[in-house]
Amino acid sequence: MPPDQAKLLLNRRRLPIGAELLDDGVHFRVWAPRRKRVDVRVGHTTHALAREADGHHSGIVAGMGAGTRYTFVLDGGDAFPDPASRYQPEGPHGESEVVDPLGYRWQDAAWTGVTTTGLVTYELHVGTFTPEGTYRAAAEKLTALADLGITAIELMPLAEFPGRFGWGYDGVDLFAPFHAYGSCDDLRAFVDRAHGIGLAVLLDVVYNHIGPDGNYLTQFSEHYFSGRHKTDWGDAINFDAEHSAGVRELVVSNVRHWIAEYHLDGLRLDATHAIHDDSATHILEDIGQAARQAAQQRRVIVVSENEPQDARMVRPASRGGYELDQVWCDDFHHVALVAATGRREAYFSDYAGAPQELVSALKHGILYQGQRYGWQKKRRGAPSWDVEPERMVFYLENHDQVANSRDGRRLHQLTSPGRYRALTALFLLARQSPLLFQGQEFGSSRPFLYFADHNPELARLVRTGRAQFLSEFPSIADARDAHDLDDPGALATFERCRLDWAERERHATHLALHRDLLALRRDDPVLLAGSTRVDGAVLGAQAFAIRWFGERGHRLLVVNLGAELPLDAPAEPLLGPLHPSGWRRLWYSEHPAYGGRGSQPPESDDGRWHLTGESATLLASDP
Q: Could you tell me the mean pLDDT of each successive run of 10 residues in the chain, 623 residues long?
């Protein structure tokens, strides 16, 4: 194909790779520099593609439309799915399918997108969120989440992966939504429904590695991966070595695909600390820019999971940052879990669960900002004093942290009810952006375990690898208890993780706790002001106070995770009210509506303080 003709066809496309419908047929374009010849096979017929100078192969095939199934035949030999396939109806080893992204009739023209202000995110796994495990079934539950006070849904990865079930982090076809959850238009309808009731939808994407089973990228180019950097999953994706342009094109196109073709409101980037790039412009910066450009007039956000909680993720490029919007903060979770359970194993070993740690987390978000981290035997993190609280994501549960245990139990099952309610109050009233994990809001009794359906040999390796990882916890490494670990490849493991929605009614006190706290966060004139200054003080061995300083008044959250604590003459200025009439009680965790046993206000008429054991109380003082 003459270069000018190839360029003209490329200009008619929305994305530079994959199969796209044009007026005169389907245009196929794939990056395969290691191949001299690429043909498109449809049924028993093959159609030759023209090789371009940069290693792409492209061509238009007339008479084809949406639903056409195809593969790429490489150098006259074996046939493989499209690396940019929009749909794999029979899984990653089957044929690719042509999809018309413009065929769905969207109803969300008035939707303007999302920002980090007031964001409350709910992480869900489509396969276990409902008994059916489909987009359609999940869409039926969205109104309940919106009524609770959720503002954004975060879907765990959807990129096509092998087997009947899995978390999605072993995806191999980045553009193709997992076929078992429903059709491409079912996913669009889910997003459309969410927008119609005021919910944003984010998608967890994995750009640090590609799964091992069904990964045919190296058949098209040996440059997709590089030994220059290593990750926990082997060679890193090649973003900075020779011939990396085609790799960067794949990822940036994937970003544009999800945002433009599915109207998604943003992405959560998995394990960005394992995305290595020494280029002048880091691929993370390109990802953020691509997402915003693809959204056009809509507002989108890009969230980074980053083990060291690196503030560069959210800093502007002018200050050496990647200009993303939020970063996950493990520190708060780790402190809260130790405070709740007293257990300091493995990567929790550097946290004491002490009041000062919780106060510092509420004030500063990230705790490790360059200090030595004993678990890793090195310094961790970097200064992040300039990062706005709403750019940091807090959680008491997420998919990893629930599953990184012997039996996937939820936090409310690991601690006392009073302590759980008090920590939930701290979590949901903090200035940082909260993320809840599916079922957390109604105290789900269903575990969340690691599950992945692989071929027998890979399943054995996954089972061994999972056991080795969990052996970092001495209580799990005990040889006498090793047989207790659930098999990730067993269907029963997956099915145990499905939510029981009847518990939403049976556990009404859990639901009321979360609903009322989210309403306070949203409606209180002091708490809703994201720029409100916060300070805190330790009041006892397990007690502390957090104070919000607002123009319309002050708020004081008094938390006691231990036994009853009298404070006859507290010499702490943060307890001083703005007005001689003292503090007014707004909310307390021991209210019977939340399953509590009742409690007296912490400040008595004579100015003495008494903190109820395992409780949290929110007080107000007006000018």
A: 73 94 96 97 96 96 95 98 98 98 96 96 98 98 98 98 97 98 98 98 97 96 92 89 95 98 98 96 98 97 97 93 97 98 95 98 96 95 94 98 95 98 98 98 98 95 91 77 80 98 98 98 88 91 97 95 92 92 95 96 89 97 88
Active site residue 524: no
pTM of the model: 0.97
Q: Tell the CATH superfamily of the 121-207+248-361+392-521 domain.
A: Glycosidases (3.20.20.80)
Q: What is the C-alpha separation between 287 and 264, in angstroms, rounded?
A: 14
What's the rounded Cα separation, in Å, for the pair 568 and 609?
6
Catalytic annotation present for 270: yes
Q: Which of 204, 265, 270, 614 is catalytic?
A: 270
Q: 531-621 belongs to which homologous superfamily?
A: Golgi alpha-mannosidase II (2.60.40.1180)
Distance of alpha carbon 288 from alpha carbon 310, whole angstroms? 16
Closest CA to 255 of 280, 276, 286, 216: 286
Structurally, at CATH architecture level, domain 3-97 sits in Sandwich (2.60)
Residue 115: name the closest of 205, 203, 200, 204 by CA.
200
Q: Given the residues 123, 160, 305, 397, select the one marked as catalytic.
A: 305
Q: Taking a C-beta distance cutoff of 8 angstroms, is the pair 162, 454 a contact?
A: yes
